[in-house]
Design goal:
CATH superfamily: Isochorismatase-like
Bound molecules: zinc ion
Strand order of the largest sheet: 3-2-1-4-5-6
CATH topology: Rossmann fold
Shape: globular
Structural class: alpha/beta
């Protein structure tokens, strides 16, 4: 099985409170990748916060409200509307820690590919969690379909993921 994991492609990270031109640029590339097929399963993570965001550690260190459940900024920035309970992963911090429940059989995984935002926070957090869970599984990050908090942080995160034996393509 070939898996594609699309990280946090939500309006607040694209043209909302934490949006960047780099994130806007990857939207059509990710849409093209999804439309092109070739994946047996695609998961979409959604960064999810609530009205108590400012009291969380993330909220104290990053005092910008974003991805509050129920607001438009939480919604997907992609022109993809086939979300289901099975392909949507709501996560309440950078990394989702229950991937092994969604991908239970490591022997059926041919490759896991990552795209999305932010390269240096949620893409790398989830890629390294999956790297720890599946040390023998080939993994890929399509750099052209990722955006960081800054272009420098994006590059730095790619360097770290490459060190952890994740293949970086289209850099
Ligand atoms: Zn967040």
């Amino acid at each position: 099985m070939k898996y594609l994991i699309v990280i946090d492609m939500q309006k607040d990270f694209v043209d909302g409170s934490l949006g960047t031109p780099e994130a806007q640029a990857v939207v059509p590339r990710i849409e093209k990748k999804i439309a092109g097929g070739g994946y047996d399963r695609i998961f979409f993570t959604f960064d999810t916060h609530f009205s108590d965001y400012s009291e969380t550690l993330e909220g104290k260190k990053l005092p910008v409200q974003h991805c509050i459940k129920g607001t438009d900024g939480w919604n997907t920035a992609l022109g993809y509307d086939r979300f289901s309970r099975e392909n949507t992963v709501e996560k309440y911090t950078f990394g989702y820690t229950d991937w092994n429940k969604l991908l239970p059989d490591k022997n059926d995984i041919e490759n896991i590919e990552f795209v999305g935002v932010c390269t240096d926070i949620c893409v790398i957090s989830n890629a390294l969690i999956l790297r720890a869970l599946y040390p023998d599984t080939p993994m890929t990050v399509d750099a052209s379909c990722c955006a960081g908090t800054t272009p420098e942080a994006h590059k730095a995160a790619l360097t770290v993921m490459r060190s952890c034996q994740i293949d970086i393509i289209n850099e």
